[in-house]
Design a protein that fits this description.
Shape: globular
Strand content: over 45%
Number of helices: 1
Order of helices and strands: EHEEEEEEEEEEEEEEE
Helix content: under 10%
Radius of gyration: 24 Å
Distance between the termini: 60 Å
Length: 324
């Protein structure tokens, strides 16, 4: 008889993805240019859809080995995806000027927008390795460490980088959780690191700034080179359940206030709130924050919010981005 605590899994499948309405028909300014000094401005972003996009088609392979004992769960896996007509964002090299009346030294006050769109890359491949370990430390504490190596390459479009945009070469997930159902306290702190990712929204060689684009050898006039980034974002959440009908929580998103306006990263946010349930039975259970029992990500409110007619839930949450 096989060991039920050791499992080998293998899958082969195909995928088909139609372009969305936005990818086909976008025609909007994401945000305008922004002066960052006298005579210098960061260019804006304007999105234009591509009605000629073709659907993605893919063939996907993956294998994994996983197992657990009393205190430890571990999994390691490999995957390989071959994609035809891979859909990617890209900078078109064109500009949208909403203030043609501004000339010369005054132009930085309302510099042009870069026009972004979507295109198909004829052939792309994404190959990777994933590993994850979850470990219990005593009765109430547990930890998680995950790692993904990604080799995501463009195999057919010489006008685009070989590394696919917005796909980090390495990704690391770290988390520590405390869960004490008897006392009603639980909490988690978790972080995600993205390493060596080509950012589609940030060009090298001064391509994002006025007046750098006026130079004939500026980055926007050459083969587009995108900035490679490495960053991490940490979050914390603490909950206290008083009884089956009352719970309060406090949390901080983006603890270290990582800022990246190109990627529209939200600055540090403080969250505090109360959940109250009136009437009906108790259909909610305390769930460790960050990941639900089926492995999906949950928020503090969503982890304890019943649905249906068993009871009415009142959620009161306050958020602050300028508290410190």
């Amino acid at each position: 008889m096989g060991n039920t605590h050791r499992r080998f899994k293998a899958n082969v499948g195909t995928g088909y993805t139609e372009p969305g309405m936005g990818e086909l028909w976008y025609n909007w300014e994401m945000y305008a240019s922004n002066p960052v000094g006298i005579g210098v401005a960061k260019l804006g972003w304007y999105w234009a859809g591509n009605p000629n996009l073709k659907p993605e088609k893919s063939v996907n392979f993956d294998m994994s080995l996983e197992g657990e004992n009393k205190n430890t769960y571990a999994r390691v896996g490999v995957f390989h995806n071959r994609i035809k007509n891979y859909m990617s964002v890209y900078f078109t090299g064109d500009f949208m000027d909403f203030a043609p009346y501004l000339k010369g030294d005054a132009k930085y006050q309302r510099a042009p927008d870069m026009i972004y769109s979507f295109k198909n890359i004829g052939k792309a491949e994404i190959t990777g390795v994933q590993a994850e370990v979850q470990q219990k430390f005593g009765k109430y504490w547990s930890g998680k460490l995950g790692y993904t190596y990604l080799h995501a390459i463009n195999k057919s479009d010489p006008s685009m980088p070989r590394q696919l945009l917005d796909k980090p070469m390495h990704k690391v997930d770290i988390g520590i959780t405390y869960d004490n159902p008897k006392s009603g306290w639980n909490g988690s702190i978790w972080g995600d690191y993205y390493i060596n990712m080509l950012d589609s929204n940030t060009l090298n060689n001064g391509g994002n700034y006025w007046p750098d684009i006026l130079s004939g050898d500026a980055g926007v006039y050459n083969k587009q080179t995108y900035e490679k980034k490495t960053f991490g974002i940490w979050n914390v959440m603490v909950q206290k359940r008083f009884n089956k009908n009352a719970m309060m929580y406090f949390g901080i998103n983006n603890i270290f206030n990582h800022r990246d306006d190109d990627r529209a990263t939200q600055e540090r946010v403080y969250r505090v709130g109360v959940n109250l349930k009136f009437g009906g039975g108790d259909s909610s259970k305390t769930t460790a924050i960050g990941k639900s029992k089926d492995g999906t990500t949950v928020n503090a409110v969503g982890a304890n919010t019943p649905n249906g007619a068993n009871g009415e839930v009142v959620n009161a949450e306050s958020r602050c981005t300028k508290c410190s």
